[in-house]
Specification:
Largest sheet: 5 strands, mixed, barrel
Strand order of the largest sheet: 8-11-9-10-12
Helix content: 25-40%
Number of domains: 1
Distance between the termini: 36 Å
Number of helices: 10
Strand content: 25-35%
CATH class: Alpha Beta
CATH architecture: Alpha-Beta Complex
Radius of gyration: 18 Å
Shape: globular
CATH superfamily: Spore Coat Polysaccharide Biosynthesis Protein SpsA, Chain A
Number of strands: 13
């Protein structure tokens, strides 16, 4: 039912300068795999085979990563290192990758709108690669697709955060509709509120399933906080009609958009790899 996953990947990654001066933050590795590859693997596990990536200037490394490198393959063919490319070869053969560029950095909402040409008129997933999620019996997108199949409306993934961190996230207010499934019908959404103004401590993370009418809403959405077009403002229009469900996902999230979360994820996956 959800056939395409959109990856907004045009941001500058300024929290990792100077490393991201010439390297996309989505290509920063956790152990031996770049962040965006973890995201593509999560989408593939959810039964999604079409990856739509919104890039920008200086992001060619992403396209090159999901392409065949004949020189490299020739160099290591028949050697002990050939098997190190098995995972990425599998992704390249099983998935279709398409790209478009976000010319101006005007917020996540604008990045998603830029991806309309790759998505068309159908529901789709959105995955932010610097939110690295793991754990649970299945990936977060697979969990969310099951929720979408029940409610047939936009779905946002949420997690509980400390109240003193609400100014870093979009925060929801809502009514619990299914305690077993941890789903809420969203009534309000606020982008990066101060703790005293936050309606809850339920924060939206970088996983969405959106219905295609979101594109028309985004076209009419005026710039909000920071002069950017916020996806939370567009989703609020759907929420006013009861058409947004928030889902408290099973698993663990690492905020790899910052150094602390990136190091935490690296240590976690290293320990995992050691058994």
């Amino acid at each position: 039912m959800i056939k395409k996953c959109l990856f907004p990947a045009a941001g500058y990654g300024t929290r990792f300068l100077p490393a991201t001066k010439a390297t996309p933050k989505e290509m920063l590795p956790i152990l031996t795999k770049p962040l965006i590859q973890y995201g593509v693997e999560e989408a593939l596990e959810a039964g999604i085979y079409t990856m739509a990536i919104v890039t920008g200037r200086g992001k060619r490394a992403i396209e090159d990563h999901f392409d065949v490198s004949y020189e490299l393959e020739h160099q290591i063919k028949g050697g002990s290192k050939e098997q190190l490319l098995d995972e990425i070869r599998s992704l390249i053969s099983r998935c279709t990758f398409s790209y478009t560029r976000q010319v101006e950095m005007k917020g996540l909402g604008h990045a998603i709108l830029t991806g309309e040409t790759l998505i068309g008129n159908e529901p789709f997933a959105v995955l932010l690669a610097d939110d690295l999620c793991t754990g649970g019996q299945e990936g977060v997108l697979a969990q969310m697709i099951a929720v979408y199949e029940k409610y047939q409306c936009s779905i946002v993934a949420i997690e509980e955060i400390p109240f003193d961190q609400t100014n870093k996230y979009g925060i929801i207010a809502g009514t619990l509709v299914d305690k077993t499934q941890d789903t809420y019908r969203v009534s309000d959404m606020v982008e990066k509120p101060d703790p005293q103004d936050a309606p809850s401590n339920l924060a939206i993370i970088g996983r969405y399933i959106l219905t295609p009418d979101i594109f028309d809403i985004l076209r009419k959405t005026k710039p909000g906080k920071g002069g950017e077009i916020q996806i939370t403002d567009a989703l609020l229009e759907q929420a006013k009609e009861g058409r947004v469900i928030a889902y408290k996902f099973k698993g663990r999230r690492f905020d790899c958009g910052g150094v602390d979360g990136f190091v935490e994820a690296t240590n976690y996956f290293y320990k995992l790899s050691q058994g």
